[in-house]
Amino acid sequence: DPKRFKNLNRNQINFIKIKTDYMMNEIMEEYMGKESGVDLSDISSNLLYDPNYFFSRRSLDFTIAGLDSQKDGNEVRAETYHKLAIKSLQSSLNENKIDPSEEHHHHGLLAVNYYHVGDFENSNKSLRKASSGYKKPKKRALTRTLIATTAILNGDVNQGCQDLYDYFEDGDITLDSTFPIEDYCIFDEQKL
User: What is the DSSP letter of 36?
Assistant: First the structure.
């Protein structure tokens, strides 16, 4: 019932976007090897490739180039690199070149790239495909929270709020006291 949820104003959407940007960066830190101890101080000499994730090096390089271009303020170049990463990742998935046990990592990286070209719907779909593969509680919680926030950013506030409710209830995500859920979601208390 659409009446259960509030309409969002620009400030609320910006808050969700900032929060989601931060969480997407957390995902990229792991893919770029920060958790595996790779020295990231020199991008050119360190390929930022963690072989544990079985990404094509090209897909990860395109993603990193896109993020670097965004950081440098070149949005057109950033979008081009992110689109190249999407194409590379989709190609790997479509050609079944990926071990099924590692497929969730490809969907996670695909979600990051979709997110950075503003395609929140496909980012959300990719996150949903990725989430079941993550076994570490922190990564699983992060992915589940991103599923909810990308749904909200895509304009599906009802689904995003329902995801938050379901994931809180299932214990998949923990309550973030800085997240103003009351600004986004009004739940029917009889169903709680």
Answer: T
Q: What is the mean pLDDT of residues 145-170?
A: 85
Q: 5: which strand partners?
A: 185
Find which of 4-18, 32-46, 52-66, 167-181 is predicted with most confidence, using mean pLDDT.
52-66
Handedness of CA 94, 98, 101, 104 (dihedral sign): negative
Residue 130, judged by CB atoms within 10 A of its CB (0-12, 13-18, 19+), counts as buried
Closest CA to 54 of 95, 92, 110: 92
The DSSP secondary-structure symbol of 159 reads H
Q: Please, what's the b/e burial string for 148-161 (b: 16 or more CB within 10 A of its CB; e: otherwise)? A: bbbbbbbebbebbb
